[in-house]
């Protein structure tokens, strides 16, 4: 198996679930809820971005959790954390609900 395939095989569904997860409290929204409401969007680099100031703290918590997952996978695979994040970004964007806002690498927002 090529190193690229090994790298991709190392990114398990469990890791993706952890990267998508958000802390849950009475006031917290899940990533999917924020995407559906348009208060946050997904970025090309595997992180979320708040589109509404009220979502900033929830997005920061989600991104911290994602960063930890990406770092763990990067260490396991011996690759840069940015490479792991970009692989996850594709999966996260694919799983985002229709109508989600996606920040492209050129800085423009598009709706899925």
TrEMBL record:
Recorded superkingdom: Bacteria
Keyword check for Signal: yes
Signal peptide feature range: 1-21
InterPro entries tied to this protein: TAT_signal, YdbL
One Pfam family per UniProt: DUF1318
The name this protein goes by in its record: DUF1318 domain-containing protein
Keyword Zinc: no
Origin organism lineage: Bacteria, Pseudomonadati, Pseudomonadota, Alphaproteobacteria, Rhodospirillales
Alphabetic keyword roster: Signal
